[in-house]
């Protein structure tokens, strides 16, 4: 058993794809036409980090209520955790792409970590390899 997808509400499909694929290095797994429950056109957009089973379903906001949660889907807490094999390379690549970091990298028992915001304002932890494993 595993979690297949987690929905992330975004402003725009294409800007979200650009960020997650070009900046974070995810793969675009699917970008297909679809329809909402009320029959309106939408897209089914899935991105996934390399070697990961769980992906993000990028859902373009539909209406004021959904627009209101963009960038704050976890109530201001870090809600997403991206573990990478080469922390320094990922950190430098993201800095070069003007990703907003909210702290300086620090060493923790579970690995090197730094908090960043995605394109929409959601907080993420960028995590280096776990030294215990």
Structure in a nutshell:
The chain has 133 residues and is α+β, with helices and mostly antiparallel strands. The protein has helices at residues 13-23, 64-67, 87-96, and strands at residues 5-10, 27-35, 41-48, 55-60, 78-83, 100-101, 106-108, 111-117, 123-127.
Straight-line N-to-C gap:
22 Å
Query: In the CATH hierarchy, what is the architecture of the largest domain at level 2?
Result: Roll
Shape: globular
Number of structurally distinct domains:
2
Which range best describes the helical content: under 10%, 10-25%, 25-40%, 40-55%, 55-70% or over 70%? 10-25%
Describe the sheet with the most strands: 5 strands, mixed
Assign the CATH class of the largest domain: Alpha Beta
Structural class: alpha+beta
Give the integer mean of the pLDDT values. Answer: 95
Content of β-strand: 35-45%
CATH homology superfamily of the largest domain: 2,3-Dihydroxybiphenyl 1,2-Dioxygenase, domain 1
Structure description:
It is a single chain. With 133 residues, this protein is α+β, with helices and mostly antiparallel strands. The chain folds into two domains: 1-61, 2,3-Dihydroxybiphenyl 1,2-Dioxygenase, domain 1, CATH 3.10.180.10; 78-133, 2,3-Dihydroxybiphenyl 1,2-Dioxygenase, domain 1, CATH 3.10.180. It contains three helices and nine strands, in the order βαβββαβαββββ. It has helices at residues 13-23, 64-67, 87-96; strands at 5-10, 27-35, 41-48, 55-60, 78-83, 100-101, 106-108, 111-117, 123-127. Strands 5, 6, 7, 8 and 9 form a five-stranded mixed beta sheet that branches. Strands 1-4-3-2 form a four-stranded mixed beta sheet, with helices on one face. The longest helix has 11 residues, at 13-23. The chain is globular, with a radius of gyration of 15 Å. The two termini are 22 Å apart. The mean pLDDT is 95.
